[in-house]
Amino acid sequence: MGRQIRPARIYQTVSQELNSKILPKYPVYEPPWFQVMRDIPPSEIITRPAIVNTQNSNRKNRKPQGIYKPQQIVHEEDSLRKTFFRDHPWELARPRMILETDGKDYQRCDWSKGVRQYRMPLTGECVVQRQLWLMHNKKHPRAKAYDIARKEFYALRQEEEIEKRVAREEARHVGAYFGKNRLQIAQDLEDKEFEVWKGWASNRAVMIEQARTASYANFGEEATDEVAAEAEAEAAA
Q1: For 128-162, what is each residue's pLDDT tens digit?
Q2: Residue 111's Cα: distance from chain center in Å?
Q3: Residue 151 in contact with residue 128, Cβ under 8 Å?
Q4: What is the rounded CA–CA span in Å between residue 34 and residue 41?
Q5: Fewer CB within 10 A of the end CB, N or C, for the chain?
Q6: Are residues 133 and 111 in contact, defined by beta-carbon separation less than 8 angstroms?
Q7: Which is one Gene Ontology cellular component term of this protein (predicted)?
Q8: Contact 155/116 with Cβ under 8 angstroms?
Q9: In 3-state terms, what secondary structure has residue 117?
Q10: Partner residues linked to 120 by β-bridges
């Protein structure tokens, strides 16, 4: 089979389709990638070029390994996120919505005003971006910027917890009823598993005690059998 060059001519094919209107009543819209492919056409070389490795390589290896493997992309925020979520692992358990309207929500954030941003939920990413802004603009060290952003985050999180508690108390005052919260549900599940384990442990203890009692009861019989066997051997001799 020859080389397949039809995917490389997709721009020309779509251009002809847009220019030649087969059905005039039905307009043909250009795809979102059409202008991008016009500005940045695909490579005409079928072979896959080797990636220039700028990282430190081990000279002891005779054969190069992973020359076609993409290099690891490292951002400055990665280490900041790792530090924050290592200190606050339960923040990962909070539900988070990652849906954006137009993909430009980051342009509407002004981290000079603090951790709280307009129409943006309070998450660990707010602490990371606030810390990064303090490091670049205020020239604070990493530890100091982390402490400032972390204290702002704690204060806002405490306000949210107080607001939820007050709203719950007001709702209960007017007759609202709330079911069990997550801690109570988890406690019930833990108690249930503990009762299951306690039953298994008691049965296991009874089995061990029975085996120990049986070994004590058979110990005398085995000794008597051994003495009788020795006496018979002496009599036969």
Answers
A1: 999 999 999 999 999 999 999 999 999 999 999 99
A2: 25
A3: no
A4: 10
A5: N
A6: yes
A7: mitochondrial small ribosomal subunit
A8: no
A9: strand
A10: 117
* pLDDT tens readout for residues 212-234: 888 766 655 555 566 566 766 66
Output the DSSP codes for 28-47.
Answer: -PPPTTHHHHHHSPPPS--S
| Angstrom distances, CA of residue 227 to CA of 67, 186, 216 | 79, 61, 18
Reading the block at residue 110, the tokens are: 């002004």
Q: What backbone torsions phi and psi does residue 120 show, to the nearest 5 degrees?
A: -135, 125
In whole angstroms, how far apart are CA 119 and each of 97, 100, 101, 108, 109? 12, 11, 11, 10, 9
Q: How far is CA 76 from CA 79, 120, 140, 156, 193, in A?
A: 6, 22, 15, 25, 44
Asked if residue 38 lies in contact with residue 11, where contact means CB atoms within 8 angstroms, the answer is yes
pTM for the predicted model, two decimal places: 0.54
Non-local CB neighbours of 128 within 8 Å, separated by 6+ positions: 77, 80, 81, 84, 149
Buried b (16+ CB within 10 A) or exposed e, 181-201: eeeeeeeeeeeeeeeeeeeee
Question: Going by C-beta distance under 8 Å and a sequence separation of 6 or more, which residues neighbour residue 121?
Answer: 96, 97
Nearest of 90, 148, 175 to residue 124 by alpha carbon: 90
Closest CA to 153 of 136, 135, 137, 129: 129
State how far the alpha carbon of 9 is from the alpha carbons of 20, 22, 174, in Å: 17, 20, 69
